[in-house]
Each structure stands twice: as structure tokens, then as C-alpha cells.
Deoxyribose-phosphate aldolase
Amino acid sequence: MMRSAVILVIYSLILVSCKEDIKTPDVQSIVDSSISASGGDVYRNSIVSFKFRGKAYKAVRSNNRYVLNRFFADSLGGFCDELTNDGFSRYINQEYYPLADSLSDKYRQSVNSVHYFAMLPYGLNDRAVNKKYEGTTTIKNQRYERIKVSFNAEGGGDDFDDVFIYWINKETKFVDYLAYEYHTDGGGKRFREAFNPRLVNGIRFVDYNNLKPIDKERPLDSLEIDFKKGELKLLSKIELEEIEVIPLTECSNC
């Protein structure tokens, strides 16, 4: 009887020890590694420009300050939308053009969205971001860490209630897939598959196959399964053109 009790105690201690050794990976380290592999310090201090769907975009980042621009023209003249740490402004023919709050919010979100997706995974360390580790999975014979992202109401923008999932490749550290649920314009869910990766002066850029579920009521967590089964519908392609990157250390006349 005594021998059985001793064995039971030892077995219990082993179980406790094993549980202590099985630790959830540090989500912050995973994201930091992905940012480092994809652009690192060049993200934080650089001038990035590209074209997307007929409009020109430019981002200047330096020492936690940023200026995000969108340029286009129509019958009224030349437009410049500008988003900075201090807010959003619109200029027409280089003159400030006041907007109603509703329009200002709409254009600000549009400008921010394009720059955000173009520079992923850089934005995953914004102060309003909450990151949660959701385990590992396999897609197309590659192993991935799943990271779920939500946002604080303060500092998270008007769409702070959006939710994202990122699949970070365990070997390369790159974000190869992402999914998100949004609530503006009637809401919906999207799954994006990265393709055409290229390195431009220190920053990795990708294009995306932009897919949606056939049933819009499908839970966000189910989109990975639907993708593996080929049950997502291709909605559009997200393609960046004429990308240029100038690290600020190389910029003498900016």
C-alpha cells in the first residue's frame, strides 16, 4: 500500500512538471520575428511609394512619426489625402479642402487601409493592437503559427471592432495568409492568400488573392478550413505596382 502511494505521488509530480514545461509560445516574439524578417528597421525610417488601382500612395515614417498620402486626379483637379499622427486632411490643387466629419472618417479609413495592408506585418505592433496566440496549423504542407488580432477602442480607429487572423510561417516568419471580419458597409469576411513576393530595398511586399466565403455567416475561424477545401470565392486581386523604397539613411534631399 505504501509503495503504491509513493508511486502515485511521483506520477503526480511528473504530470505537474510536464504541464509546467509545456508553455504557450510568446506571441510578441513571433510577431517581432515576422516584422524583422519582412523589413525590420527599414519600416520605421523610410519613404515608401507605390501605385494601387490607378492611385499613387506614399508613406514617410521617421522616429514614430508618419505621413501617409494618397494622390489622384479627376475633373476637379489634383487630390492629395494626407493622414498623419495628428489627423486627416484633404487638399485639392494644393489647397486645404474642409470635409464633413463623416467624409473625413471615410477617406481616412480608406487611406489607412491601403497603407496598412501594403506594409504588413509592420502594423501588428501598433499600440492599439491586442495579439493572441491560437496554436499551429498546416496549409499546403507548410507549418504556421496562428495569431488573432483585435483592437482597443481607444486608438483603434472607427473600425476598432474588426478582428484579424494572421498565419505566420514557422520557417520563413512571413505572413502568407490572413483573414479578417469587418463591420463597415454592411460588414463581411475576407481571406487573403499572398503571392508574388518581392524584396524592394529591404522591405518584402506581396500581392493577394482576395477571397470571400460563399456563406457570409461562416465564422471567421472557419475560413482556413474553407480555403483548404477550395470553398472560397475569388473576389479580387490586390496588386501593388511601381514600388519604391528609400531608407531615410540614404535620403539626402527628402
